[in-house]
Amino acid sequence: MALDKVGRYKIKSELGHGGMATVYRAFDPVSNREVAIKILPRELLNNLVTRARFKRELKLVTSLEHPAIVPVYDVGGDEDHQPFFVMRYMSGGSLSEMIKKGRFSLRDAALIIERLASALDHAHSRGVIHRDIKPDNVLFDASNNPYLSDFGVAKVTESLISATGREVIGTPAYISPEQALGENVDHRADVYGLGAMLYEMLTGERPFGKDTVIGLALQHVNDPVPNVLKVRPDLPGEVDVIIKTAMAKNREKRYATTIDLARELNRVAFGGERTMPQATTLVDRQTSPGSLSKRVGWIMAGLILLIAIAGGAYGFRGQLPFLFGPASTPTVLAPQPSPTAGTTATFTPELTPTLAITATLGTAMPEVSSIPGGADKVAFLVGNQLYLMDVDGNNLIQVRTDNSIKTDLYWIPDGRLTYISRNCVYILDVDALQAQQVMCFVSNEVLEGFKVSPDGKMTAISIQRTLNILPFDLQALQDVDTRFSLLTLKENCFYNQYAFRQILWSKTGTQLAAHVVDTELVSSDQVFLLNVDIPKCATVGPVRLAKIPGTRVDFNKESNKRITSFDWDGDHLFLLNDSIRNDGFGDLYLYDSQARQAERINPIDGNCCYRDARWSPDKTYIFFVFQRFGTNDIEFYYIPYADLGKSNAWVPIPNMDTLFSTPREKPQPALRPIQ
Questions:
Q1: Do the domain assignments include residue 304?
Q2: Which spans in 270-399 are helix H?
Q3: Contact 568, 513 (CB under 8 A)
Q4: Contact at 8 Å (CB) between 409 and 381?
Q5: 529 - beta bridge partners?
Q6: Structural contact between residues 570 and 506, judged by C-beta atoms closer than 8 angstroms
Q7: Mind giving me the DSSP string for 495-528?
Q8: Active-site residue (options: 28, 74, 78, 132)
Q9: Radius of gyration from C-alpha coordinates of the chain
Q10: Helix 258-269, helix 188-203: angle, nearest 10
Q11: Of all helices (H) and strands (E), which one includes residue 302?
């Protein structure tokens, strides 16, 4: 008999099952969101070994809190009923499914390994060994962030008997030699699993391929690790060394930690330009006077070298035109002083010296005296690093904060930039180059949106798919660490009628455009246009004025029909794109909420693909990221809205192609109004 309900959760479909558990996709009417439920089948209730393993997994996953470990929302069942636990529903599929679509580039693989290595290191620090690292146990959310799942559980159907006759926990294709031999394991078994998975990500093939369980186990014990360069000769030779070190038969010869593996892979993939931070605490970022003097010495030496390079390059001006513009001069900003030992809420980003680049504006319009679109700065991301530049591409600088994933870039009215990183909100003072931590939430509550109102008085916070609107008071927000502590603040308007994600304010501050998970439609991503009566929010809920795009968009057949990004002019016009390729590039649509009409606009000769389109501050220009179908190059454009549909030969903002290293970049640009 098929299940239709578990506790309060309504079962929608079966996602998968193994020897000891079944996972269902379900709907939670209380939080108005989709979830995944893992449940022990009734026929195994009396199997003491299976029941013990299920409870062991439950205990482990509820004790581990990390941004890259699938969070648990709820648990249920007792001794007389089927035990189950409720997890976040990962709608992006598994790494195994992604590998079937094609091999990963080295940099894309390194980014995924970095995030998983951090999660495993967190588990290892708490004495937990995963023991079953494989692509099926790496799941992706709707934004294609990878998460580890299935901690501490061996599926009965995939367990095996070793040459010593002992039962082995793990999956044969990725199992470490010591697991195959039935020996005691430590965290280095997970290092081995990461190495095996890295090989498959880069080649599309498993490292060993015997057809039988015992045959696979013997290959892991006896056969040499295959040379990845035979399948991928385009990779650097160091990659083969990294994989063979991670998969060494003798665990003593492997990387000591998963972080060591990820750091070495980053060094090769990014040429030393991207390194994992040694520590994550703000205290460790403080600099002693002695070390500061050394840094100043190195910076001065770097300045001398930079000037020498610029002088030498002058002789090659014809061959290297991108180094020099008509009026450009090398500019370097002085390093900012480090915070004092007593400061923990503020850190000083390091500024990467960058040659000023004179660029032509990304439009065919003639030059005008005022700044087009009313924007003077653009903030955007390259990987996990934050960059700033003028809207014409000049004065490009990198602000080094940390190597954590960043989202939701947004300029607040006073000219500072807010962003989300590590489940915290930060405010960056661009002039002082200082980022202040505003608030942090516990890791099992996902923070997706933080937007300050146009008048700077209120803020809208999307946490765990609920919406909170309250006064923008930095001192009060610093004491918040859970969504429940938000509810204790005065003047907080709490809304949970929809599963809220990102939020945008209207010009007047009386309406919101909310990216939500809409369970009424097959295409679950929608933007709801809402009226909010903040003074009366205790008795008056949000009133939905429009559902965007609803069913009014005829998506391309290759589209996943999910909204990757959207922007709003604060009145009735919306820019949004779906996803067709490379984790979020798709067709660009314009939606008019008054006329209730949608139009595919694709400004560059009608071609795909786009992402992260933004209105300029005065709504007369649009800024967007473009990647022509069939290529991996990423370009920025800034064009007049009034000229959409005309046959102008738009020119991209120059020199962006040298920044991006992976076709799956998520720049998330934010345009600052003229200050």
A1: no
A2: 289-314
A3: yes
A4: yes
A5: 513, 546
A6: yes
A7: E-SSEEEEEEE-SSSSEEEEEEE-TTSSS-EEEE
A8: 132
A9: 26
A10: 30
A11: helix 289-314
Cα 282 to Cα 286: distance, rounded to the nearest angstrom: 7
Res. 264: pLDDT tops 80: yes
Q: Are residues 246 and 361 in the same domain?
A: no
- Tell whether 184 is covered by a domain: yes
The verdict on 596 and 538 lying in the same domain is yes
My answer on whether 586 and 506 are in the same domain is: yes
315 pLDDT exceeds 80? no
d(CA 60, CA 123): 9
Whether the bond into 609 is cis, omega within 30 of 0: yes
**Average of per-residue pLDDT across 238-265:** 95
Q: DSSP letter at 241?
A: H
C-alpha count within 13 angstroms, C-beta hemisphere, residue 223: 14
Phi first, then psi: give them for residue 580, nearest 5 degrees: -115, -35
Residue 188: domain span: 95-269
DSSP bridge pairs for 386:
381, 399
Give the HSE-up count for residue 46: Cα atoms under 13 Å, Cβ half-sphere: 1
562 lies in the same domain as 617: yes
Tell me if 424 sits within 8 A of 401, measured CB to CB: no
Q: How confident is residue 45, by pLDDT bands cut at 50, 70 and 90?
A: low
54/154 same-domain check: no
Rounded average pLDDT over 529-550: 90
Q: What is the CATH number of the domain that holds 43?
A: 3.30.200.20
Chain center to CA of 311: 40
- Cβ burial of 121 (10 Å; 0-12, 13-18, 19+) is middle
- More reliable by pLDDT, 217 or 166: 217
Under 8 Å between Cβ of 207 and 194: no
Domain-embedded: residue 338: no
- pLDDT one-digit tens code per residue, 380-427: 999 888 999 999 888 999 887 777 899 999 999 999 999 999 999 999
How many domains does one find in the chain? 3
Question: Per residue in 95-126, pLDDT tens?
Answer: 999 999 999 999 999 999 999 999 999 888 88
Q: Is 567 labeled as catalytic in the residue annotation?
A: no
